[in-house]
Design goal:
The chain is mostly helical. It has a single domain, classed as Farnesyl Diphosphate Synthase (Orthogonal Bundle). A two-stranded antiparallel ribbon has the order 1-2. α3 runs antiparallel to α4 and α7 runs antiparallel to α9. The longest helix has 28 residues. Bound molecules: geranylgeranyl diphosphate (GRG). The site of geranylgeranyl diphosphate (GRG) has 15 residues, from α4, α8 and α9.
């Protein structure tokens, strides 16, 4: 493929994958009731669309699609799983922004869902996205055999649940009071943000019917990238301007929350990020040229500015 001047193949592919998943999400989240539904309340649907179709980077869908591409499986089934994962990610942001959690007014440069609508709408939008994600994967419209769909549903439920994202969020809320040590911070981050990113990469292997060795390799790549993602996020909280990243900054320090950046400093964090990128690249070595965009993704996530 020819690349446009100034844009890398990675950036172009990220945009193309994002556009494809957004097209599918627009269709899936329209006001039109789908088979088996009685109706779709229009204000709730508007709140849901505001939470999902408002300009995210779509990194998790990209990771699903590119991991599936390693096994020649980046077709419609992978796109539906990618869309389902973005529904869960978006729900987590909508709920995380609520007054009872992080109490944020701006997300992706726009008013948060509870600010534009109200708290009840934000809670229901998140609940709806969570359940819809599982329907999307389990549905017979997803062109995968039943075992693959059940395997994906199980892995996603674990990643999003008490042993993953929601458990990590609970530990994170406690962290402001009980100041976890380094191992505690790494564990809570692996749960809160790492688990969904790990799932994104492992999902590609499940969709592609990969053997257990390759599935494990992709999951480990996802863990390295997940940790890098969170470290980069903590770094941005210290170094970035809120206008540039479309959300509030300086929140960790204001909340007295320990992060690896507050424990070890900016230079240590940058060295760790380089080490995680190298680890991610090593894990992808057996896939050769096919994995070049996933290697770029690891670097992009570690060096991201938003
Ligand atoms: C409330 C159930 C529940 C869980 C919340 C993931 C999470 C757990 C909260 C998000 C809070 C937060 C800002 C965490 C930092 C890492 C993160 C998930 C950032 C946002 O993800 P991006 O950068 O966002 O991929 P976009 O907007 O590009 O989709």
């Amino acid at each position: 493929m020819m690349t446009e001047p100034g844009f890398s193949l990675f950036q172009i592919t990220l945009q193309q994958r994002a556009a494809a998943v957004e097209d599918l999400l627009s269709e899936l989240l329209s006001d039109r009731p789908r088979t088996g539904e009685i109706s779709r309340p229009s204000r709730l649907m508007a709140a849901i669309r505001h939470g999902v179709l408002n300009g995210g980077k779509r990194l998790r869908p990209f990771l699903v699609m590119e991991s599936a591409a390693l096994f020649g499986a980046d077709g419609p089934a992978a796109l539906r799983v990618a869309a389902a994962l973005e529904c869960i990610h978006s729900y987590s942001l909508v709920h995380d922004d609520l007054p009872a959690m992080d109490n944020d007014d701006i997300r992706r440069g726009q008013p948060t869902v509870h600010r534009k609508f109200d708290e009840a709408a934000a809670i229901l939008a998140g609940d709806s996205l969570l359940t819809y994600a599982f329907e999307l994967i389990a549905s017979e419209e997803t062109e995968l055999d039943a075992l693959a769909r059940v395997t994906l549903v199980t892995a996603l439920a674990r990643a999003a649940g008490v042993g993953g994202m929601t458990g990590g969020q609970a530990l994170d809320l406690e962290a402001e009071k009980n100041q976890p040590d380094e191992a505690g911070v790494i564990r809570l981050q692996a749960m809160k943000t790492g688990a969904l990113i790990r799932f994104a990469c492992e999902a590609g292997a499940i969709i592609g019917n990969a053997d257990s060795k390759d599935r494990q390799r992709l999951a480990e790549y996802g863990s390295a990238v997940g940790l890098a993602f969170q470290l980069a996020d903590d770094l941005l909280d210290v170094t970035a301007d809120a206008r540039d990243i479309g959300k509030a900054t300086g929140k960790d320090a204001a909340a007295g929350k320990a992060t690896l950046v507050s424990m070890h400093g900016i230079e240590w964090t940058r060295r760790q990020l380089s080490g995680l990128v190298a680890q991610a690249e090593d894990l992808l070595e057996p896939f050769g040229q096919k994995a070049v965009l996933l290697k770029d993704a690891a670097r992009f996530i570690a060096e991201r500015q938003s």
